[in-house]
User: Which sequence fits this backbone?
């Protein structure tokens, strides 16, 4: 139950009721397809005439299609309803400091085309390259109706779509949503990557329907945290909630792009593991250890560890311990049902996972029951998160106050 904010509310109208019923119908079809109109009325509790009006509108708009005809003991034979995933297109953008990936997917987060390119050094160049990619998609898939674009960013964006904090990207605060919409002509939903990944787990994950308290931890160039509490994203003041990667674990530690020292991500991120392997910590430099080239990708560190490189294995073990240290704080402070870990490191979870669990158990309360679940890198959770940003706008609960 939420308190009504009398400074920011919307009075319920007949249109509000129609929108709520429409979303209920869409979600029942999404979860139970194929289903008939009669099945939808029975499951939802809506009147059959209401269901018929909603479905006719959804078919006209292209969201729903009718398929095979079922059997009936008497009366008209039912037509089964499906989401029209082949008609509806969502552009998903995973913006990362080194590489940007753009995908075209349906509302089921199945991708029909993808393209990746080096992330430009400034926002204007990024928007121009993004526009060229979307133009290519439209040319290759002219029958698709594009419903919107979701953009996952390595930082924090406010409610207006302005990027306000992205130390690893290196961009100053900038409005991204407005210029992208003006250039490409699609409505844009812009969100922090970890928040987007949390939404992806809510909409496309394999967790039971009753899971409402979930934390997503993205491990990449930095560390991001997205929090779902009672099924709702937590944004906090100035949209900055979740920046646990910039909580200092050692005030005398290495400098961080955010301006502080010894942040969690300086010990638990891909960048931190590569720095350690190269000899970026004081002890390693003193012993002359580390020989990785400056541009070595994190996947190479995983490969070296698999081939018996002791220093690479040590770097991963150190990274795992610090991932666990940070996750322990999240479990103790938030008590989520599930913590989902996203990132290339999950490809080595057989090696890393037990070390994370050990570090967590040493630092959490005895009765803590949070499950720690790694995602599969091939499932592209950050890109699916960008899809979820648009999906929730059409399928999510409508807030009226």
Assistant:
């Amino acid at each position: 139950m939420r308190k009504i904010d009398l400074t920011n509310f919307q009075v319920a109208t007949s249109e509000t009721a129609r929108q709520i019923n429409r979303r209920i119908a869409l979600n029942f079809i999404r979860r139970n397809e194929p289903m008939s109109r009669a099945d939808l009325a029975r499951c939802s509790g809506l009147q059959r005439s209401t269901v018929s009006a909603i479905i006719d509108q959804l078919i006209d708009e292209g969201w729903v299609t009718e398929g095979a005809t079922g059997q009936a003991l008497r009366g008209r034979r039912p037509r089964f309803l499906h989401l029209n995933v082949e008609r509806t297109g969502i552009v998903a953008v995973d913006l990362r400091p080194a590489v940007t990936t753009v995908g075209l997917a349906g509302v089921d987060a199945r991708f029909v085309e993808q393209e990746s390119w080096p992330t430009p050094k400034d926002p204007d160049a990024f928007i121009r390259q993004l526009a060229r990619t979307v133009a290519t998609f439209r040319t290759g898939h002219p029958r698709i109706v594009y419903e919107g674009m979701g953009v996952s960013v390595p930082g924090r964006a406010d409610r207006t779509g302005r990027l306000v904090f992205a130390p690893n990207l290196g961009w100053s605060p900038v409005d991204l949503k407005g210029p992208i919409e003006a250039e490409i002509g699609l409505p844009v939903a812009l969100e922090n990557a970890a928040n987007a990944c949390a939404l992806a787990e809510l909409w496309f994950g394999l967790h039971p329907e009753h899971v409402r308290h979930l934390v997503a931890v993205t491990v990449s160039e930095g560390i991001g945290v997205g929090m779902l509490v009672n099924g709702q994203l937590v944004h906090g003041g100035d949209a900055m909630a979740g920046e646990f990667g910039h909580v200092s674990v050692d005030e005398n530690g290495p400098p961080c792009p955010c301006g502080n020292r010894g942040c969690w991500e300086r010990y638990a991120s891909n960048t931190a593991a590569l720095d350690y392997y190269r000899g970026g910590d004081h002890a390693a430099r003193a012993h002359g250890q580390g020989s990785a080239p400056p541009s070595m990708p994190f996947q190479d560190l995983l490969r070296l560890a698999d081939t018996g490189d002791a220093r690479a294995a040590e770097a991963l073990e150190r990274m795992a311990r610090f991932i666990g240290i940070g996750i322990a704080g999240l479990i103790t402070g938030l008590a989520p049902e599930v913590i989902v870990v996203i990132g290339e490191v999950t490809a080595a979870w057989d090696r890393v996972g037990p070390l994370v669990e050990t570090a967590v158990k040493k630092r959490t309360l005895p009765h803590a029951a949070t499950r720690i679940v790694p995602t599969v890198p091939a499932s592209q959770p950050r890109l699916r998160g960008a899809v979820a940003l648009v999906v929730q706008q059409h399928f999510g609960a409508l807030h009226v106050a």
About this structure: The longest helix spans residues 310-334.
